[in-house]
Design a protein that fits this description.
Layout (H helix, E strand, L loop, with lengths): L10 E2 L2 E2 L5 H27 L8 H23 L11 H21 L5 H8 L3 H10 L7 H24 L5 H27 L5 H22 L2 H11 L3 H49 L6 H21 L1 H22 L3 H10 L1
Helix pairs in contact: 1-10, 2-3, 2-8, 2-10, 3-7, 3-8, 4-10, 6-11
Length: 356
Amino acid sequence: MQHSTHKSANLVCGIDFSRFPKHVQFLSLASSVLGLFIVYGYIQEKLFHIPGFRSYGWYLSFIQFTFVSLISYVDSTFISRSPKRRELPPYYEFMILSWMTVGTIGLSTVALGFLNFPTQVIFKSCKLIPVMIGGIIILGKKYTLYDYCSVVLMCAGLIGFSLADQTVSPEFEPKGIIIICMALCFDAVFGNYQEKLLKKYPHFTNADIIFYTYSFGSVIIFTWLVATGQFLTSLKYAAQHKDVYPLAMIYSTVGYLGVQFVLALIKSSGVLITTIVTTMRKVLTVVLSFIFFTKPFTFQYVWSGSLVFLGICISIWKRNRIAILNAISSLIRSVQAFVSSHSTPISKLDKTVLQV
């Protein structure tokens, strides 16, 4: 009797990465995550450099949600070919997730109308702060010294970055800080609720979740645009600036692919490796933003960003301490084995010298 050695598929746009060796999986998935999200950030900032675009963050979110809905439907139906479901999805639960997604992505995008791009990225990296505050107030959770050190460093870095932005950036407006903090609060709840849905309804794929979430989200944003009178104004503006739609569609596509590769990297290499890769992506995004787009610079950005980065590192260490120590031990053993296998024994070296 033969035992099945079938591995669970790790599909991204119809490509099963589980068929490749582990190192190939990591290199291809990690490089894709870095590349896609760097492009995603570049296009997002480029859009907000179009004259007058800063007032149309909600319209960009509407285009993104609508286009991602179409992409995810094509992906799940024709490319990844998700299994057909007989039961209807729990729409009310997807509506809740849609509101959280709109709050997370929509408000983050709108905040760019009032903040420097690097400031927005730095704030988005500090999801731990609202998670801890909510845990203490709502759940009565107790946290370790590592958690408090991490949050104190993040808060100090955020304050420093905000003060620097206020001093040197002409785009800075205080309400941008309020908007991005609201987005952080939505983001703190979003991840846990999405994970709960995936566990509760395992027959839904990632593409299915994205399709229903973004479909409902596009309706929510459309309703908001119409109710506030922004929809017709946005259409008129986009008609006058021909590069808005092409850039927005590339931006939406790259963002969708980036999420798929992140999920695949988690499945292939685990949460720790994925967290390190995505953290490095944020660092690169901030650095490249200063290189590609002319903006005022002060050294206060450097030390403030370093405090936030140190806080993130402490958070990663606290949550994955054992895994990190095991990885370091494994690396040391591998290096020692490599050195010993390639070193020349003394006796053999003596014989070689004598023969010479």
